[in-house]
Each structure stands twice: as C-alpha cells, then as structure tokens.
Give the backbone structure.
Amino acid sequence: MCESLSSKVLGMKWDVDNDSFHITVDIKPNEAVARKDMLSVIASMYDPLGLVSPCVVVGKMLFQDATRLKLGWRETIPSYICEKWKKWAQDMCYHFQEFSFPRCIKPSTFDDAELELHTFCDASEKAYGCCSYMKCVTFDQKVITTLVMSKGRISPMHQVTIPRLELQAAVIGAQVHSMLLTELDVPIIRSYLYSDSQIVLAYIKNSERRFKVYVENRVSVIRKLTHPDQWRFVPGTENPADYISRGMKPQDLMSSAWKEGPQFLKECHTV
C-alpha cells in the first residue's frame, strides 16, 4: 500500500485510495511465552469495531486456558498451549495483511436504498457475542450487506449453562443494536435481531411468567432496548455470530460469510 494513500482513523489504518479499513498486527515471536506476554499481545490488538473478533477471540481462549492452570505472570506456559499460541500469532501476522473492510456501509450507487439493521447473537461454552450487518435494498431490488460491528466475550471460567450464555449474548446484541440505531446518522427503516436459541426467544417473548433473578434481570434489559417482535430464530448453520462463539482461523475468515452475513440476508425479503 502506498504510504501517501493511507492514514489513521481512530487508531485504525485507513486506505484512502480504496476507502477501506485495515487491521494491523505486530506480534514479536518469543521462544518462552508467559501469561504476561499473551495478555500484552491481546491488549495491543486495537479493533474497536470488532471487525476481526472471531480471530482475536481464539487468542483470548488460549489465554484463559493458561489462566486456568493458575500460573504466575512470568511463568512459562506449557508446551501444548505455547505451540497453539505461536501458530495463532504466526497466522495473525501473516494473513492480517490481506484483510480489508469497506469504510462506507452505503455505497454512492445505493443513494435511494432502504436501510435495515440485522444483529445476530450466539454463545458456546467458550465464548459469546454478536455481530450487526447493514442491509441496503434499492427500489430495483439490488441488495448489498455489510458488517458494521461485532463484539465478542470469553465465557466465565466458572461453569455457566449454555442457555444463560445465549441469554447474555442476546443482552450484548440488544445493547449493540440499540447503540447503532442511535449513533448511525442514516435512516434505518427496519431492524431485527436473531438468535439460534429457542429458549432465549421464549424468555424474551414471554411476558406472563416470572423468571429467576438472573434471567429476569437480563430479559428486562433486552425488552427495554428492543421489542420482542424484533427477535427472530436463525438456524445455527446460518448464524454468523457462531464465528465469534467458536473462534476462527485468520486464513478462513475472509473466505467465510463474515464480511457480508448469511446468504438469506442478501435476499430482498428476509423476514
């Protein structure tokens, strides 16, 4: 990339010529790796929009595996974790040079398009999170979808049931969804949220039954930020938030549906 055609926006590399964001990673390989080195690398990855969160979350999972062993900050991690860590770091440095994400979520050729916001949520025993996509539909039925933002979190070290993690993912999804509706300076005519957990959807849409405190507190947050009618079921195989909950190799990220969302989202009428 020509240096004169690149700049920085909020700490992210911006290719002015192609009008796209690039995520840069600079990881120095170390023979001996301790927890402090792992945390330093993870903290140095600046990705405020979560554009590559499915890859970053893998490093966080490895750090949590090392933390479970109750090692000291400067104590060398076991070889089986160290090998996975070095392979992940190597892949991040090599493949991230190829990553680019469009800055503009509404191209100039879509000036007359109607905008929809679609947010997906998912959780596993290792991680949970959400991702949001902007869908532009023109009057002549042309469709383009773009990743706007995602957020991923590692599951707690103490055991939590999958339905509760799915519910926590829905809370994050509702918060991100509400924030984007407020902050994006574009008219969004429709917005929907998706989960592949029927239990969570039943929680959200049930207004008669009293739940336990944990569930009740989170359901009340979701209902405050969204309407139950906005929530939809999505099969796990078509849920892009699954990439966050399970993690993804950098070399597989750009060949997946991560940047543009699932295929059904690209249809003119999805709901």
